[in-house]
Structures
1.
Amino acid sequence: MKRLTNVLSIVLGTLPTLVFSFIAQAAESGGKELSDLNLRPGVTEISGQVYDLHMLMFFICVAIAVVVFGVMFVSMYLHRKSRGVKPAHFHENVKVEIAWTVVPFLILVFMAVPAARTLIAMEDTSEPDMTVLVTGSQWKWHYKYMDSDVEYYSLLATQQEQINNRFSKTENYLLEVDRPLVIPTGQKVRFLITSEDVIHSWWVPDFAVKKDANPGFINEAWTKVDEPGVYRGQCAELCGKDHGFMPVVVIAKEPAEFNAWMSAQEEAQRQAQEEEQRLLAMNMSMEELMSEGKRVYNAACAACHMPSGEGLPGVFPALKGSAMVLEDRLAHIDIVINGKAGTAMQAFGKMLSLKEIAAVVTYERNAWGNNTGDLVQPKDVNAVATGE
Amino acid sequence: MAHSTDTIAPEHTTAHEHDDHHDHHIPSGIKRWLYTTNHKDIGTLYLWFAFIMFLIGGAMAMVIRLELFQPGLQIVDPNFFNQMTTVHGLIMVFGAVMPAFTGLANWLVPMMIGAPDMALPRMNNWSFWILPGAFLILLSSLFMEGGGPSFGWTFYAPLSTTYSGDSTALFVFSVHIMGASSIMGAINVIVTIFNMRAPGMTWMKMPLFVWTWLITAFLLIAVMPVLAGAVTMVLTDKFFGTSFFNAAGGGDPVMFQHIFWFFGHPEVYIMILPAFGIISQIVPTFARKKLFGYASMVYATASIALLSFVVWAHHMFTTGMPVAAEMFFMFATMLISVPTGVKVFNWVATMWRGSMTFEVPMLFAVAFIVLFTIGGLSGLMLAITPVDFQYHDTYFVVAHFHYVLVTGAIFSIMAAVYYWLPKWTGKMFDVTLAKWHFWCSLISVNVLFFPMHFVGLAGMPRRIPDYALQFADFNKWISLGGFAFGLSQLIFLALLIKACRKQGEPVSSQVWEGAEGLEWEIPSPAPYHTFETPPVVK
Amino acid sequence: MSEQAKDNQKMVIKLLVIVVGMFGFGFALVPLYDVFCDITGINGKTANSAAVYTAIEVDESRTISVEFITRTNTGMPWEFRAETKRIKVHPGELHTVNFYVRNPANKQIIAQAIPSVSPGQVALYLNKTECFCFNQQPLLAGEEATMPMQFYVDPQLPEDISFFTVQYTLFDVTGKGDSLAVKDNPYLREQPKSGT
């Protein structure tokens, strides 16, 4: 029994202590490996404060643990029956009991002060230099720059083949998007955060920003990034099937570089609109529509309706053989543009161009044995969208 | 766990000719268990049910860990993965931990306070027998088209309303039944403790297990109806067009979280207060010394219970609250660590200058104190709002609540089973197997949950079926620890089967050298009917 | 029935009263939550009925920027935009901003606008004397309307706030609850050409 106790003391005592000291050491030495083990200090003043607060709380907790477990293990070693110890008879002591109520309370006060200070620093409501409207929807983010017309969706860029283990996984597996959010360094950027459907949570660990996106309500958060770089995060609130597949990527650029980027975006957006207008006057061929449609379908629709068009029975309806897809062409275009309230079907009118919608509707009406032969042109989509 | 039907001690069979409440002819076979109103039978049923649910919920955890063993999607699709995390949580909370505590209360509360049975034996029978139905409904929903609930055990609206499958109706129905069962169990415990104590068993003489369960029972009747209200609102929002949580109709999805956590935080204490009671019974026995600070233990338990009603929003710091509210909930939450600390200090003080031995129940109790404290300390870190923004919804939280609930609540239940099993069966359990069970569980559970702190801090969100590459190494270890912990519980199963077959050395009525209390004064195994004439407590 | 059983029964009844009471309390949390929001400004819910403007002193020393965001929910095809994206106001001053809507669908749709303000506590100081969000707004196919929102900012607005955002989300509530007849919509730009 004695041997057993010793083993117990050693295992229980050293396991957590070893790990704690390991982290403490790692925290001191810094380095890249650390970020796999501990909170990161991040790249903003706030995230630095949060990190310091975390380390302070951590060391206080380790100290408490060492003292409490220390006393306990000493007792377990000394006060064993096998050592012939006779039990003492004390079973209360008001002074001691008051002491271990008051002392922890004082420690808490000591912890509460810096915590409150950081919290107040986070809730800075002064006017920002720039505002971005961040909208979550199943399973992508939408960014809109409030001071310009630039807006776009940001989708997971990792290939499906990597997720299915057919291709080997690349460095930023699941943490890469097609169009990252770009913000300037050294400026106060405010994020207005909301959602189209369920609750999401926009999280960038390096900024210490995590805020829920609640449908119908706006939340706000802000950051001021000092170092240019690429910062990666993820959706933090369970939001359905592909919750694990909607990363957040933010690129911080020097203001001059940022302005150049912004002008380029505005120009690109304008050109895209002109292209849309031009497309209205012409007809695309079946081959063109089908190949474009397949690309769009796999990017925007396959998450729910599945690449086979069979959906997930009981969750997401099948498009293969669906009455709407086979018959009602206008309703089909309408649901793709406007979505359907009270279901997971989103409004793609904002996300996809007229050409893309035309292509994807054509694709859905002709793929997987849905051989309607229907051709949908950008101008048909435009007619539904504008009510003409 | 089962007990003999033919060992009614002579002194208990003669003293109550006028007693017409009990049927001394015990029916055999299935009928005995279906119709039983005996607190010991019902306790046994609850405990076996809890253990079966623990194995089923554990099997789901194995599916989760198998999928997370390496990055990429291997064995399940994300939709099924979400069903696994959801149902695993529901089963462990409502099917394993809570029924196990109710089972222990059934067995022990009457024996500890010198009562012949629970106050409401027939209700006791119903409260157990509606449980298997509730879980059959929940489990069968997994086989529906579209699968079972997949919105997390916290079922946040609108994911659980507008965006959920049809199985939500079954989920709501089963939660209603589980709630009704817990409420009935709680009422029974309260009435028993208020009305059935033996003469001389004053409030401040009651064993701590009885005290903690009394307070737990009040928490249960206060918050389980709120949960019933929340699921009812989910049901009407989804199927009957109400807009409690729908912004379009003037509702608010965040309100769901307020209502849920108003239930949810006291629920956390429902799952840990009886554990405090168990540890407070075991530590003095094996330290051969009276519990230190009995009165402060009672007051600490009561203050934890009261504080648990004013901290709920610490689960929701990221939903966007005014700073003043965040401060309030942060400070209130930090305050809870004071009474919790008092408990840990009292246990250590009980050990101090005792004369300790480390039999299996004590091993689990010591492991509980250390590992629960680790969970408590990470809880304190989580209370700090600005840092919680980083911890929230990551594996750090998963590590925290598994330390509190697995190495806390479940270890305490195992400690309790090893402690009282000889009293129930009359035979000492297989100590070698028990030690194997303890050491395998202790090591594997730490390999399983400790690295979760690291992946959480490094930024891995919870409830994801696939993860970025930097989390791969730790997840492999976590999964291996998980499989080992899962297999370790099969040792427990083997031990329990042996114990129920009455194998082992007979034990004395006191069983453990330092054990004190009414339950240790009756013979081992405990007779089918005990204390039909109340004992007098000095 | 023995004494003991009677005592037990009494106690059970008392406890059941608590249970029923707590079930009711769960539902009472719904209106309580709204009261709580009104007091603390959680979630930035603004009042859903008109405030009365009484001439109060305008605080010229402070200028507040107010930003407007418009969104339409899934399944809502309307065009919806604020004619004024951003406005600077002094606390106490009455202002009107207009919102443009058009229904491009080929059927009548009834809309409900849901407001949200950030930072949340501003909701306590934002007083709307008129708002299209107080009522449901019907539009026939192809109709358009300009909807006003008249408001003033309470001079009590905390000193540290100089900037806030008001968001309106339009939801399609056709066929739900008490829908207005089309002629009741006071904000129509022009009468529809074809009567119904």
Note: The two ends of chain A are 88 Å apart (CA to CA).
2.
Amino acid sequence: MSSIPHDRAAAGHGTHDDHAHHPTGLMRWVTTTNHKDIGTMYLWFSFTMFMVGGVMALTIRAELFQPGLQVVHPEFFNQMTTLHGLIMVFGAIMPAAVGFANWMIPLLIGAPDMAFARMNNWSFWLLPPAAILLVTSLFVPGGAASAGWTLYPPLTIQQGMGMDLAIFAVHIMGASSIMGSINIITTILNMRAPGMTLMKMPLFCWTWLITAYLLIAVMPVLAGAVTMLLTDRHFGTSFFNAAGGGDPVLFQHIFWFFGHPEVYIIILPAFGIVSQIIPTFARKPLFGYASMVYATAGIAILSFIVWAHHMFTVGMPVAGVLFFMYATMLIAVPTGVKIFNWLATMWRGAMTFEAPMMFAVGFLFLFTMGGFTGLVLAIAPIDMQLHDTYYVVAHFHYVMVAGSLFAFFGGVYYWLPKWTGTMYDERIAQIHFWTSLVFFNVAFFPQHFLGLAGMPRRIPDYAQQFADWNMVSSIGAFGFGLSQLLVLYAVVKCIRGDGAKAPAKPWEGGDTLEWTVPSPAPYHTFETPPVVR
Amino acid sequence: MSPEQRAANAALMKRLGVVVLAMFGFGFALVPFYEKICEVTGIRNIDGPASRPLASTQVDASRKVRIELDANVRAMAWTFRPAQPVIDVHPGQLGQVTYEVVNTTDRPVTGQAIPSYAPQEAAQYFRKLDCFCFATQTLQPGERREMPVVFVIDPSVPADLPAIALSYTFFEVEGGKLAAAPSASREKP
């Protein structure tokens, strides 16, 4: 929310020289309960997983550079597609969003820390073991899970112990997300500064509040689904085992009951970040704040009744297909409200285009394209043609990479001065943006053509007629992957203090509470709550 | 943090914890819910006795539907084959086919046959009155058994469905665990 008059005197300067009170070195990070430390760890963990998942993506693209089998065995290729999906969704994007929440929500609502500081530490430290389980599963007999990140039976019931490790990893990451969500909801509902009513909260807090509710609603369902997989595998139940009277399609229903809200869990925090960045650089309050809140809630509610559009081809009554098709299209309405509100915020604004704004505008453009291909896929007769083709791959990379990831990059550049006290290198950030933008489109735009021409996803080999666009796509993917080293360089440069000293408010248009504390943000902030009028 | 703040946070955490537990249960509740939906809508009612009455009991003598029979076992030392590979029936006419199964092991083995149909949409026109797949079959060592399937092809079967492949696969049931399995209609006698 914009235009909050702050009581700057209460913003909590001074008295923060208490770095002696906590352990130093490694133990500082292991034992920390500080929301900024934990946010930092979440973001670094997420970036590490982004690199790991990225190497897997590049392995896939290297194999698909040419038709035929050159680089890896098909079994390993399947493990790569599966782990790439699991790692990027549960290891990279979701922890990044939680990292932003940890760092920024207390600062944005004027709270001294998260509500449950110890649980916060615990929910972070669950993640590295889960990541280790996933990555080391590559080295167990039979290799890692290779049934796709959606873990569909019957393949998941038949595979080796790599699948058990993946199931445990999903359990652990789910527990981490649930604890993080309970923390975020409690922080937002109970810890706001005096005067910070819900409808005065910055929109990032709203989108995260709704995301957290989605998480506690659907993560347990996923936990149940993978638990059923586990008991089917080892304890003789037959939830999904056709031989014992179960039904593999049942898994798809339970999975996507989780899986569709999950895609909004991935995108809503990104919406929140963009809603902070655009008003700042347009130097105008966010257009239609209340409608943004209601649209976010509308998207979240609708997300529970559209799951079967992921499974039009498994067979369901026509009435069911029509229901899920129209419900899916309905989601375009609140999403469209958000898009137009962002456009209206920029309209006649005094815009400048620093890196955060570039990423926000790039997000707006490319996410909208991904949204449109989503509408195309919502049309059941078209979906039955395009199901499991590269068109779907292109669609969800437009919304997840150019959507969530671009917004997160925007958020990183937006808040780096606050986090490190040093301005990032604008030139590197701009190069990072433009290389990311161009290579992203080189990598993923041709996949629309491949999908429309009928190339199936998750297959290591393909027919000759797909060769040209696959080569282009692989070149784009490698370019995109290498470009991401630039953000690492920019961030490390800031941490080393190599750059201009950042003022408390580096962005002229920023008017939320985090800009009232010094840069870098002191270890403890808002111990005396600010007064928001 | 003040004690009141702490208490308020703990209370909210408890409430959210209840939501989490409830949603974990909801995931499992989807299993019987799904079975019920399938039963009510008849989507998966492909392997139980014909539950709905036929729209018409008139035998349509003007055309025939070819039933192609197929038999498989999954990792079992049974031999399993149909007495005849193909049978032609009029829609509405009572048909009967026989399968023969032999336990070639030296121990008693229990199996469950799972049907499938090609094309898939043919399943709804295939009305079984009796089938060995309605129950598990336990064969003593070396035992040979002839098992019938009695069926009617629904006269409303479209004319562009001249042939239906009926395939059974036997799966071994270990330790009678199938009895506890969440089955839609297969276990009904």
Note: Chain A has 17 helices and no strands.
